[in-house]
Amino acid sequence: MKLYKYMPDKFVSGFVDKGLLLFRNLTYFRQYEDIRRGDPLEGFHRDNPENDVTLSCPKTGRILAKGDFSFLNSTNTDLIFVFCMSRILKDELYKEFETNTCIEITEPLEFTKRVHFSIKKLLSPHKNGLLAGDVNYYRDNAPVGFDVKEPKNLAFAKGNHYEHQKEFRLVFGTTKRAFDLKQQIVVNRSYDFLKEAKNGQPKEKLVKIGCLRDITKVHRI
Questions:
Q1: Does pTM surpass 0.85?
Q2: What pLDDT digit, counting tens, does each position of 109-143 carry?
Q3: Cα atoms in the 13 Å half-sphere on the side-chain side of 167
């Protein structure tokens, strides 16, 4: 297994020679307007049935409402930071990310270990520490293969229209509230995901893990 980080050429030296990794919180990507990188549903799972939904009282069975609803599970996207990579090296991704440079990480386990060590030194990291794994792609009108009520999973959840990117993520939270679960039922016609995303605060954290020349290779097209 190899990992690939597509990036502008001007950042290559900082990454390879110093191990500078720019983590951004999920809110940053929720507010990012370019659909190739941005997604207002970062940190969310949306269950959006094709047919109208009937809501009823669990105790009495009385029907409360019927209509076009979505069920949302989400977490605190201000407090969860991600570093995004891919499992594949493809010309199409160079074009999609508008760069001619990609860094191949030849030893992903060693790379992850070094990042883990650096994250431990940050102020107020969440007790989960560093999480690493493939993104779970899903259709919002179909069953999923992961627990949508587990907040850690929501940091790795994305709509299936991003599946071609074959994304792999490093994730960490700040403060104990980072992976709190929030559940909502929303009316589709009146709930604006983009508007709701604007309520958050985009943030960055630059993590330095040291020289990576021994476990990286630079590709250019």
A1: yes
A2: 999 999 999 998 886 777 888 999 999 999 998 99
A3: 22
- CA–CA separation, 122 vs 10, rounded Å? 26
Distance CA 198, CA 193 (A): 9
Would you say 66 and 52 are in contact if contact means Cβ atoms under 8 Å apart? yes
pLDDT-based confidence at residue 91 (cuts at 50, 70, 90): very high
Alpha-carbon distances, residue 7 vs 16, 57, 99, 144, 157 (angstroms) = 12, 51, 6, 31, 22
Determine the pLDDT at residue 63: 67
Whether 65 has a pLDDT exceeding 80, the answer reads no
Mean pLDDT for 34-43 is 82
**3-class DSSP string for the chain:** CCEEEECCHHHHHHHHHHCEEEEEEHHHHHHCCCCCCCCCCCCEEEECCCCCEEEECCCCCCEEEEECEEEEEECCCCCEEEEEEECCCCHHHHHHCCCCEEEEECCHHHHHHHHHHHHCCCCCECCCCCEEEECEEECCCCCCCCCCCCHHHHCCEEEHHHHHHCEEEEEEEECCCCCCCEEEEEECCCCCHHHHHCCCCCCEEEEECCCCHHHEEEEEC
